[in-house]
Write a structure and sequence with these properties.
The structure is a single chain. By secondary structure, the protein is an all-alpha fold. Among the domains are: about 70 residues, 434 Repressor (Amino-terminal Domain) (Orthogonal Bundle), CATH 1.10.260; about 90 residues; about 110 residues, no CATH class. The chain is about 70% helix and about 0% strand. It is built from 25 helices and no strands. The longest helix is centred in the C-terminal third of the chain and has 23 residues. The chain is elongated. The N and C termini lie far apart (about 65 Å).
């Protein structure tokens, strides 16, 4: 018999099986569940095809089948939107079965007794207020899929935005979540002005953290064109735009924008502006001005931002071959490195630090130590799946080592690590149906609110 021809079990079937296997009368089941004998008889005989959900919950407490299996049987014949919504809330409270949640959500949306837009709005609100991120993401995915199938762009836009805001917090999937964000551009007109502004600024920060500097500027400018109030998010995005201009060598534009940036009234503004001015001088190779400014920043800056200053100094000292100054900085490594890095830019900065350290160690004849430093840098880049930095770091390390007559053992040590990192990260992104927020909860963070540079 084909699967489609196999009779589907009902709640009545499960009840009948339970009574037969345990030689129970309706009266005995009534005593166990509080459901009357008459109601039980009607359910088992099929006279009541859709019992009240509270009745099903009472039966579920004694039936041997898993709760999820009982609910799946029940929702097959259920079309009442209020009952389905109640089941949704119950499944969310249990918080364990994604497939069941999606099945009930679709049944709720398909209910002929409910207006489609009203159902989508209720499901959207439920997803927004669900504290379990995994379940919330599942509901938003269901909303987007259903809205696509039924041509409802407003909820494609709203669902994608919420999906993006969740997935962007996973540092292992920054590129994938950025692509989700880019798709929202096609539906931007279906978002409110407030949602559009939020989206553009979050995406601008995301672009900067994935080194898409031109895109960061474009997205920030789009958000600024909509923003009506100076918020901290506006200031953070504005700083990302300034730093993107600096990365692109647009130093005059940086200095012009810094004057505007300094009008924001937030605690981090003065520190960020001071450091940015020093970095601009460094990148313009005005080292006689940049070094004193950076040293002053290092003395005054908050501990979690020290690594950014040190990297700029190391870059200058390597360029000018100031070995003594480099040694002095490396001695303070424990004070420099972030204790618990949780942002993309922090991991990249740590990778950059070890890359500078490794280059210096190899140049000064400490080959084994230099290789270990490059390995530490590769691991930092691997935390955010930055394959470009991994590749460039390998190229740099091999170049310096070859200059020092590196043996094949040293080269193979680096190659093996690179292959391990690439294999590990590629296996993560190739697994279908994987929930990014479940993979590594320690990587979840709001990286928009923690970076000065």
């Amino acid at each position: 018999m084909e699967e489609s021809q196999i009779p589907r079990k009902t709640i009545g079937d499960l009840l009948s099986l339970y009574r037969r296997q345990n030689s129970l009368s309706f009266a005995q089941v009534e005593a166990q569940t509080g459901v009357t004998k008459g109601a039980l008889y009607k359910i088992e005989s099929g006279e009541t095809k859709r019992p009240e959900f509270k009745t099903v919950k009472a039966l579920a407490a004694v039936l041997p089948q898993p709760y999820e299996e009982i609910i799946e049987c029940y929702v097959e014949d259920e079309q009442r939107p209020e009952t389905l919504y109640e089941i949704l809330q119950d499944v969310i409270q249990l918080g364990s079965n994604i497939s069941l949640l999606e099945k009930v959500a679709v049944k709720f949306l398909q209910s002929p007794q409910a207006d489609t837009y009203t159902a989508l709005e209720r499901l959207y609100h439920l997803a927004e207020t669900t504290t379990n991120t995994e379940l919330s993401l599942s509901l938003f995915n269901t909303i987007v899929k259903y809205a696509r199938e039924h041509g409802i762009p407003q909820y494609i836009a709203k669902g994608l935005l919420q999906k993006y805001l969740i997935e962007r917090l996973d540092l292992k999937r920054l590129e994938e979540s950025f692509r989700v964000g880019e798709e929202i551009i096609h539906y931007i007109d279906f978002l409110t002005r407030e949602e559009q502004t939020l989206f553009y600024f979050r995406m601008a920060l995301h672009a900067y953290n994935t080194q898409k500097y031109k895109r960061c500027i474009e997205l920030c400018e789009a958000g600024l064109a909509l923003e009506t109030a100076d918020t901290e998010l506006t200031a953070r995005a504005y700083l990302a735009m300034i730093n993107s201009l600096s990365r692109l060598g647009e130093y005059d534009a940086v200095e012009n924008h810094l004057h505007v940036f300094e009008t924001f009234d937030y605690e981090f503004i003065a520190e960020a502006a001071k450091l940015t001015r020093a970095i601009v001088k460094a990148r313009k190779k005005e080292y006689d001005v940049a070094v004193p400014m950076l040293k002053e920043c290092l003395r005054e800056i908050s501990p979690h931002s020290r690594i950014h200053v040190v990297n700029e100094l190391l870059d200058i000292y390597l360029e000018t071959n100031n070995r003594h100054a480099i040694v002095e900085l490396l001695r303070k490594e424990k004070e420099i490195l972030p204790v618990n890095p949780q942002t993309p830019y922090k991991h990249l900065s740590i990778g950059r630090y070890y890359r500078y350290k490794g280059a210096f160690q190899i140049k000064t004849g400490f080959l084994d130590e230099g290789i270990d430093s490059y390995i530490d840098g590769l691991c930092a880049y691997g935390e955010v799946n930055d394959y470009q930095e991994i590749t460039e770091s390998l190229i740099h390390s091999q170049f310096y080592l070859l200059e020092k007559h590196m043996d094949f053992h040293d080269l193979n040590k680096l190659k093996e690590l690179h292959n391990r990192i690439m294999k590990k990260q590629m296996s993560r992104v190739s697994v279908t149906g994987e929930n990014p927020m479940k993979e590594n909860p320690m990587q979840q963070c709001d990286y928009d609110s923690k970076e000065v540079t």
